[in-house]
Design the sequence.
């Protein structure tokens, strides 16, 4: 079974994906980390051709064999990953990797083009929405940042880049369920999403019979 979760920066995709993966025992794939790893490689002075990003069975992201999962969430890589995501050769490479990971597995995959490009036939597609202000407060709280105005401007800049890029722009799939997360707790969003997945399980069981 494939569950696709999309949405803009700091909309809660990763927290929701982790909760669904834990609830159903699915493999968790955080595709944003793959783009961050590419950006990290470029920041280190590597040529794109020399950058090899993979994911191990534990869901850890490897950059040329080095586990970099714990150093990928910085403001610099927030913007860097968005920029590299506009490069066709990067998207082609990572989309192929993401599809290979999902092949024959129960997965919950989160990103910005999962339901539209990577897994267009996913069993459940969820698109999270939240205001830029709400997302800025969440991001600042996560990273213990005090300049909310700077965080907000960074998120708005990222949104613009993600939504206007010519390749796989950030948009909900036509058959995605949109969940608005403003003024909702994580528990409320998780409950709503789990109900969607369980409904799909039930429908699939009924169809099989």
Sequence:
């Amino acid at each position: 079974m494939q569950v696709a979760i999309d949405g803009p920066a700091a909309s809660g995709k990763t927290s929701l994906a982790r909760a669904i993966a834990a609830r159903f025992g699915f493999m968790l794939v955080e595709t944003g980390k793959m783009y961050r790893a590419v950006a990290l490689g470029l920041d280190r002075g590597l040529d794109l051709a020399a950058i090899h990003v993979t994911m191990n069975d534990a869901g850890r992201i490897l950059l040329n064999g080095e586990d970099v999962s714990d150093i990928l969430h910085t403001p610099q890589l927030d913007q860097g990953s968005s920029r590299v995501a506009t490069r066709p050769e990067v998207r082609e490479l990572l989309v192929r990797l993401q599809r290979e990971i999902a092949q024959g597995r129960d997965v919950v995959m989160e990103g910005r083009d999962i339901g539209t490009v990577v897994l267009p036939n996913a069993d459940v597609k969820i698109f999270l929405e939240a205001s830029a202000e709400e997302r800025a407060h969440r991001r600042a709280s996560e990273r213990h940042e005090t300049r909310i105005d700077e965080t907000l401007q960074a998120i708005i800049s990222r949104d613009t880049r993600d939504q206007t890029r010519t390749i796989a722009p950030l948009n909900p799939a036509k058959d995605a369920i949109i969940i608005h997360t403003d003024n909702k707790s994580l528990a409320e969003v998780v409950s709503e999403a789990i109900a969607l997945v369980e409904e799909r399980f039930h429908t699939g069981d009924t169809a099989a019979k």
